From TrEMBL:
<keyword id="KW-0378">Hydrolase</keyword>
<protein>
    <recommendedName>
        <fullName>Carboxypeptidase</fullName>
        <ecNumber>3.4.16.-</ecNumber>
    </recommendedName>
</protein>
<keyword id="KW-0325">Glycoprotein</keyword>
<dbReference type="InterPro" id="IPR033124">
    <property type="entry name" value="Ser_caboxypep_his_AS"/>
</dbReference>
<dbReference type="GO" id="GO:0005773">
    <property type="term" value="C:vacuole"/>
</dbReference>
<dbReference type="GO" id="GO:0006508">
    <property type="term" value="P:proteolysis"/>
</dbReference>
<feature type="signal peptide">
    <location>
        <begin position="1"/>
        <end position="27"/>
    </location>
</feature>
<keyword id="KW-1015">Disulfide bond</keyword>
<dbReference type="InterPro" id="IPR018202">
    <property type="entry name" value="Ser_caboxypep_ser_AS"/>
</dbReference>
<dbReference type="GO" id="GO:0005576">
    <property type="term" value="C:extracellular region"/>
</dbReference>
<comment type="similarity">
    <text>Belongs to the peptidase S10 family.</text>
</comment>
<dbReference type="InterPro" id="IPR001563">
    <property type="entry name" value="Peptidase_S10"/>
</dbReference>
<comment type="function">
    <text>Probable carboxypeptidase.</text>
</comment>
<dbReference type="GO" id="GO:0004185">
    <property type="term" value="F:serine-type carboxypeptidase activity"/>
</dbReference>
<dbReference type="Pfam" id="PF00450">
    <property type="entry name" value="Peptidase_S10"/>
</dbReference>
<keyword id="KW-0732">Signal</keyword>
<keyword id="KW-0121">Carboxypeptidase</keyword>
Amino acid sequence: MASFSSSSSSVVTSYVLLLLLLPLVAASLRYPAAATSPRKNSNGNVGGGGQAARLIRSLNLFPKHGSNVIVLNDDESDQRLSSIDDLPAAGITEKKLSFNVTGGAGGESVEELGHYAGYYSLPRTIGARMFYFFFESRSSVNKSKAPVVIWLTGGPGCSSSLALFYENGPFHITDSLGLQWNDYGWDQASNILFVDQPIGTGFSYTTSESDIRRNETGVSNDLYDFLQEFFKGHPQFVNNDFYVTGESYAGHYIPALASRIYRGNKNNEGIHINLKGFAIGNGLTDPEIQYRAYPEFALATQLITQSDHDTLAQLVPTCQSSIKACGSKGGKACTDAYFNCEDIFNQLMNLVGSINYYDVRKQCEGSLCYDFSRVEQLLSDQSVKESIGVKGIDFVSCSDDIHQAMIGDYMLDYELGIPELLENGIKVLIYAGEYDLICNWLGNWNWVHAMKWSGQEQFDGASTVAFMVGSAKAGELKGYGPLHFLKVYNAGHMVPMDQPKVALEMLQSWMQGRLGAV
């Protein structure tokens, strides 16, 4: 078996090479016809319709692919790689080239923007390398001081490239597999990282099964180590404000990572990361409270009858008691809790049929909910892979192996670590699209209000006010001190995809401290 040194190394290659190759890629890839035409939203971008490849139960629960665990030179050799030479190299020269992207870039010219892709090896692993895309800010105002934001997609086990290309990255993928500027990309307000994690997800890989993580301790340590290496490679951003963001199962990842950064800073473990806050979108954070909300939310949105509600409610006590057992015993008790609580959701879905559980206004057509096939096609093309330095590594959009490995983590409560962060001035934003079922706003509202911290009484008593974007009422906002909750109108599970302008304004106003704090 071949393995790599645990000393950190960075593979950095210009993301723009990918863009230069797009005309060739579009011509060479077979793009299957969709069942329906893509639906365009008001700003002209192709939005998530009901036509697609089911990568998302994916974004939150049941991904369908393996993981990138690569074993060489033994009886179980991975047939994708013929030799050690097919693995990504230790260093590729960073280049800045001009390229063509349709639409207006906003801010500075394309040639002046820093777009990178690469790997960092992780010192606590045997042979793991974590893949990332990094985009310097498009903002022309105080660009060098713009915050650094990391985005984590959920799963567990889904690539952050899904969010990059369909939600809040600099670009969207067009029907012809070209790239179009996203006028509401979060790089308008920040220097943003999209990281494939846990190891085995996306283009991140390892040469040892022992590097596959099964809990947030391992996941957060890997991310902390990644950030240490990232800031060594990009020291000009060390003093910038830092924010952790993400959605769905990132409701577990984000509090764990924020706590890990806080602890690392407190103990002077390495480079001080200037953590200012974290934001969770439609997350799963406190399963006991959130699973209890399924019957209530479904009844309130008229998805089920009162009789259906009462039947589902009978399943809640078993879910709650098994979650308590998971918290005290761990191990098999956590696996049991997972299946006991999932029974609530599965029986609910039996009642509502083919509804899109990420947006109850829509239907899943057959087994399809959203079309994320373009990113799989783009990042599976060999010429694109070579241009971003991943060579023989397969793109794993969502990994069922990683999902299975993390089942014991699923029903743990990650609200528990948040109060300490609030008490130390770390800003917390919990936001949720109003039409998501699977990580619905009501369950998130309930756990935020139940959280015990010094400002709980004041937060509970705070008024709910309109969140305005321009002259339009875009949501309902409640806040006290460092804690805010935002219910976003006309959005499902993926707020930056459904309401891109609102999501960018939310991010900017929150980071700038003008989100309506009391």
